[in-house]
Amino acid sequence: MSRSPIPRRPVALMLWGAAFGTAVVGCSAAEPEPAGPPTAGPLLSVSQICAGLFTDDGGKALERILESTEFQIRDEKGNPEAGAVARAMEGAYRSGAKIHDAPQPVCRIVGTDKDGYRPTAHVMFTAYSKYDADPADLPGASARGPRVWRQGKSVDVTFDCVSVRVGSTSDIPLQVTAAFQEQWQGSKGAAALAQDYLAVTHSAALAVAKALGCVDDGGLPARAQELPPAAGAGAGAGSAPAGRPAP
Q: How many CA atoms lie within 13 A of 63 on its CB side?
C-alpha cells in the first residue's frame, strides 16, 4: 500500500491504534491504555528508551509529559535507537520512487501506571523526497530551514538533510519529519506541556539529523527554544497546512 501525500499523520494514528488497541478518530486523543505490563522486560530509564533520541532537555521533558522516570516498551520494533532510524531514512531516500513504501520507524513510549492507566506517547519518523512530497514543501536550492507544526498534543518537526552519507543534495534533499503525539487523557495537556512536546520532538529530530550526517544538522538549532514559530491549529492558525487533515 502506498503512503499518502505529505505529511502522513493519519498513518501515525493508525499505527498507534493498531499497536495499542485504542480507537483513534482523526487527530483526537485516544482512550488511555489500560494498566498492565507492556512486556515482560525490565523498567528502563529515559536514556534507554529508543537510545539516543531523548537526551538532555528532551529526556527531562519526556519524563514530565508522562510523569514517569521509568518506562517500558511493547516490543523491540517500538524501541528503535537513533542510528536505526537514520538507516531507515537513508534507505527510504535511496529507494527512489519506492519511498512510498518505505518503513516509518515508530518509537513507542509507555510510562508507569497512573490510576489504572499507563501514559503513552510516540514519535514517528517519515522520509520524503522529490518522489513523495508536495512540491511546495521541497526547498530546492534554497532551503527554508526547519519547520514546526502543532495541533493539540501533537508536534511535528521537519528538516531538510544534505548528507554525503545519504547522497542527498541541496537540490534534492532528504526531508525528514519527526512526529510526536501524546495519548493520555490524564495528562496536563498542551496548555501546560506545549514546550515539553516541542523539546521531545526537537531532541528526536536532532539526534537523527546528527546520525545521518546532515550538513549543519539539517538547520536544526541546538535548543528547541530556537526553532521557528509553529504553524497549525495549536499555534493559532486557522487551518492545517497542505496534506494535513483539518482539525
A: 14
pTM: 0.80
- Residue whose C-alpha cell reads 487533515 in the numeric block: 245
List pLDDT tens digits, range 160-218: 999 999 999 988 899 999 999 999 888 999 999 999 999 999 999 999 999 999 999 99
Q: Are 169 and 162 contacting, i.e. CB atoms less than 8 angstroms apart? A: yes
Q: Is the dihedral of CA 206, 62, 198, 147 positive or negative?
A: positive
Q: 45 with 59: CB under 8 angstroms? A: no
Single-letter code of the amino acid located at 57: D
- The whole-number pLDDT of residue 184 equals 86
Q: Which three cell numbers stand for residue 238?
A: 486557522
The Cα–Cα gap between 97 and 89 comes to: 14
Cα distance between residue 113 and residue 71, in whole Å: 10
| Dihedral angle, C-alpha 30, 31, 33, 35, nearest 10 ° | 170
Return the bridge partners of 126, or none: 177
